[in-house]
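Team,

Forwarding the record for the chain on the shared tracking sheet. I've put the sequence and predicted structure together so nobody has to dig through attachments.
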Amino acid sequence: MKKKFFWQLWVDTDEASEAEVEGLLATVTGGVPVAYQKEGSREPRLTVYLEPPAEEAQALRDCLEEALRRLKAFRPRLNASEPRLERLEWEDWAESWKKHFKPLAIGRHLLIRPSWSRRQARPGQQVLVLDPGLSFGTGNHPTTLFCLRQLVRHFPRWPRPDLLDMGTGSGILALAAAKLGYCKVTAFDFDPVAVRVARNNCRANGAAVAVSRKDLREMPATSRKKYTVVCANLECDLLLSETARITARVAPDGLLLLAGVLRTQFAGVREAYEKAGLTLIAEQAENEWHSGAFEWTQRPRQ
């Protein structure tokens, strides 16, 4: 039987340049970069795992190298190494993840762990089993962490909260909500691969989450159905262009979590949502990312 293998494409960078390099890597490859620190160093390595033939993988590496060269011409202080491409056998890929991905505890209420971890949950702590994949993260990104902590923190506010997860990716936020006890959880993503991955993760965890493929930009501008919590971990351009569609789905006493925003973009996002009638009640800035939790300043009309 022929062994399965992957291509590992990576760039070494630093904290100041991480966000720009991550965005470029995602744009060129169509994958989701994973960041971890190199052994013996505090600097991040951004990695994307690919499955194309050798010629396509090499072409992507060359395209990334050219894109970095052009970006450096406009950003002389950008710190990014020459892209490296390496072939990994399935076993090597799996072992590399076991080395870098550790269980993640969100307070005393939620434990996210890979299937190979034997870590036991504390009394009252719900367990979410989620293995890293080629294209989707596992909760360690600052924007995802912010949303997870907010889900845990605010859950006791309502007797029977429900949740809508926009741009669900691996389904981690929707899964966490279902495990915590949100009474109804709905999620969608535009990417059909994300929908398949999220459904598989929900099935593996025995979580009742309705996952579908939708394009936020084509959804009705208004909505009768309102959700106690809406998570929108999306690109900044989408958060700004679809403010009305997003806020239309937040219940009068609900919470809106916005993530996926760079520090330099957050002021504009905050202004747009405050103009729509919401107030920022919590925020977190970590590395180059800035996330926020919003609630209605005044309850909107039904």
